[in-house]
Amino acid sequence: MLPEVDPTFSVAELCEAIRMALAITLPDEVWVRGEIRDLKRPKTGHVYFDLVEGGEFGRAADAKLSVALFANHKFSVNGILRRAGGGVRMTDGVEVRVRGSLQFHPPTSRISFVMTAIDPTYTLGKLVAERDQLLRRLAADGLLEAQGRLPVAPAPLRVGLVTSHESAAHHDVVAELARSGFAFEVLCFDSRVQGVDAARTVVRALQAAERHAVDLVALV
């Protein structure tokens, strides 16, 4: 009698086993949190990015998940972000909590996360915590006190507004100054205020505001 041999899968059979294992282990949508990296917005209307954990200071990520936000779900996700006040932008470097399901694609042996929703309160909470941490550092270095000693024009009507152009914050500040009854001149300097480009673009916007000799700068 020939010895019994281990079963041999075909490639398609093994791929189907992987797909079934995922479906059994995670049959429903789940929430996952991480940092957005390499976000792409092709002309198809879909959005693709990696959700990563770790990898600070230029290191490779400790874990990475490929995420797809298809156009049919993007409309509802954008609605969630608008209803949250527009304070969250999906861009590289932003921490997010998103909901979706895992899918396995046999032709590429690729597992991806199909996103259907986002929790903006998670990102807003992270931003508040990071802002408070930054303010504590500035206070410890004496920079907040030094800012308070800077001379300000008696009537600072020429205002440099540093924020993301056409954002909710941009519209709120401009509308509030317009309602004041004073003849404010608002010069807007576009900058990212979230994500990996924030530091570089904020510095560039502040330099531009200085060249335009504004009376004060509002960083929102």
List the helices and strands and how they pair.
Blueprint (H helix, E strand, L loop, with lengths): L10 H15 L4 E11 L6 E7 L9 E7 L1 H13 L11 E11 L4 E9 L1 H21 L2 H6 L9 E6 L4 H12 L5 E6 L7 H14 L4 E4 L1
Parallel strand pairs: 3-5, 6-7, 6-8
Antiparallel strand pairs: 1-2, 1-4, 2-3, 4-5
Structure, described:
By secondary structure, the chain is an alpha/beta fold. It folds into two domains: 11-119, Beta Barrel (OB fold (Dihydrolipoamide Acetyltransferase, E2P)), CATH 2.40.50.140; 155-220, Rossmann fold, CATH 3.40.50. 37% of the residues lie in helices and 28% in strands. The chain contains six helices and eight strands, in the order H-E-E-E-H-E-E-H-H-E-H-E-H-E. The chain has helices at residues 11-25, 71-83, 120-140, 143-148, 168-179, 198-211; strands at 30-40, 47-53, 63-69, 95-105, 110-118, 158-163, 185-190, 216-219. A five-stranded mixed beta barrel has the order 1-2-3-5-4. Helix 5 (168-179) links the parallel strand 6 and strand 7. The longest helix is centred in the middle third of the chain and has 21 residues, at 120-140. It is elongated, with a radius of gyration of 24 Å. The mean pLDDT is 87.
